[in-house]
Amino acid sequence: MIIDLVPIWTLLIGLGVFLYVLLDGFDLGVGILYAFARDRAQRNLMMNSVAPIWDGNETWLVFGGTGLLAAFPLAFAIIMPAVYFPIFVMLLALVFRGVAFEFRFRDRESVTFWDHGFAYGSLIATLAQGIVLGSFIQGFRVDGRHFAGSPLDCFTPFSLLTGLALVFGYAMLGAGWLVLKTAGKLQSYAREAGKVALIGVLAAITVVSIWTPLQDADIAHRWFSWPNLLFLSPVPIATAAVAALEWRALSRDEIAPFFYAILLFVLSFVGIAISLFPMIVPHHYTLWQAASPPDTQLFLLIGTLFLLPVIFVYVGWSYWVFRGKVRGDIGYHDG
Amino acid sequence: MSLDPVLLSRLQFAWVIGFHILLPAFTVGLASFIALLEGLSFVTGRDIYLRISSFWTRIFAVSFGMGVVSGIVMPFQFGTNWSRYADATANILSPLFAYEGLMAFFLEASFLGVLLFGRSLVPRWMHFVAALMVAIGTLFSSFWILSANSWMQTPAGYKIVDGRFYPTDWTAIVFNPSFPYRFAHTVTGFYVTTGFAVAGVAAYYLRKARFVEEARLTLSMTLWLLTLLVPLQMVLGDAQGLNTLRFQPAKLAAIEAHWKTERRAPLTLVAIPDQNAETNRFAVEVPELGSLILTHDPDGEVPGLKQFPKRDLPPVIVPFFAFRIMVGLGLVMLTIVLLSIWLRVRKRLFETQWFLTVVQFAVPIGFFAVLAGWTTTEVGRQPWTVYGLLRTADSVSPSLTGADVLLTLVGYIGVYAVVYPAGFLMMRRIVRAGMSGGVETPIGGGRSASPVRAQPESSEQASA
Is A280 helix (H, G, I), strand (E, B) or coil? Predict the structure, then answer.
């Protein structure tokens, strides 16, 4: 093998995970905000705004998971047992919120039960994903090619904080989506909710950004040594600027709140990538050490490079079909 | 007894995959059926196909949603509970899993939204295409996941370095020796499962004299399909048996509870296999039939369990009985099909009440057969995850304690015990509500500029 495929796969997995966070992020966020909806009509609209696309969004989780297994199997084999319980909780929460779409509207006697299933399922799945993220940043106890700690190690104050951060983050994305897809009272509610979420996001980003270098000398060195400080300073500065734009947009724009929320996620994602690169199992294995052999990476890459553009075309098309404000007469309805 | 993380992880995997497989067993066939109906409606312009299709699409929506969320659970099991298996096999199996996602899941998920909610938003032919894409997606999915499963049964195209598998020949890996047989047998089994479920609902309507025109068409179509597929499935099953004899002789011997390697071997119809004493109790045998069926030669040699080390054998009693349940159900299916031919010739198919009752009660028969077949092949693979190469006991995550796994197992049992019965009740409710209410009026020519006042998807949904 002449070309090193690891950078390509790093970008592809990064893209897959990011698209998952973004896409399922906004529909999980709609689920989090769902708990605060005023009445059933609003809940119907909120659910219908994501009903045709949520399962495509969740498919990126499978892409991220199987892609990680394929390109960096050692990372998968170490990380997954380490986050055993949050993954378990996330999966069950996703089961509940996933079936709630159909069940809520078929099972009128238990509509409140499935409403709770959707809202709490979304909230708990998000919290669990944030805990996975936090414990990933903190790193795991590793012995050779195995996770050597306890499955309870991942529950730390820091990981609970990142869990909370992600709840605010997804809620912000969900609010942006609802501003885009709804009108009237529901849209006004989404604007207010978006502002609350944005404050939570900024508080969480600030605390995480201070805490992370404090607990990890490598990360502190990465950000605060010269000349890195110069090259990397645009990231926090841009974050502050985008946050200000998001605040303003939430008051008056239709599309911009969702757009700036995405941009905030991009910047946070870049920040994490800068902190951790080139480690895929922090403190233990680099991307190259955890990579699968070139034969495996090439075999999957050929198909992926062909299929991903096709996937983008029909995923884009399916969003296009359901474009515009969500309508009461399409999807699930009370009649 | 101390809690064994290996046994508990196996139980957990069996639990989550056992429930998951019920849904593809249904949706693979149902997606094709819906695509066929949408195609017939598009070509003939007859509304009846659309009414039947709309009805089954409502059932499909419930079952597919459950299939998606129970399916997302699966790849994570490899990491959380089977990390040493993941580390050892990822170089070979992970691209197959990833290709399943890339080729199937995105296709299904994207076009499903349009199939379920988009009838009034896209042209009629596009809605048919959406149904077709969902159906093709389910088949792609079956292709890749069964290729991966088959590789674990009959590994090929690999080398082992430092206890991990490395690919040497991708064609040999994907099209490993048991894959073509397993793919044909499993997918046909899925179609048969759907066929009996659909036919049973149609029979129920005929018995109640509801939606008679739709029910007759549905029953006739599905029984023709089953007339073709049930005998074909038996031929395919026989072919897979020959393949198992060649590549997994210990599994075949366990399925037949056959202890002594011999020619002119008898066929054990029923018995209680006693693994410790290496013999069968209360055996009912037919002389020489074993060799004839298993090798297609009355003088053929059938391997016996005693020729393999004891530690390389599966728990014989499980595949032995699971296989007999599967074959027994297959014979019941064949009987139903033969009866349907006889009644059709006499033009009494839709009027014979006892037959309709039988067909109605046969709704779950395919699901039981699929579970029995799956149990046969998966328990028969034990004590290996990769047959003959990687032991199940060496596959589990080393960090897990029995208590950890017990906790999650209880969680999966608890949640599935709520969600699956709820899903079943939901589908039963859709069936009771019936095919009435007709179809949303399809709007030709795509999306209009002003908001369209589309018909509700169906009247009883609107009033539900």
Answer: strand
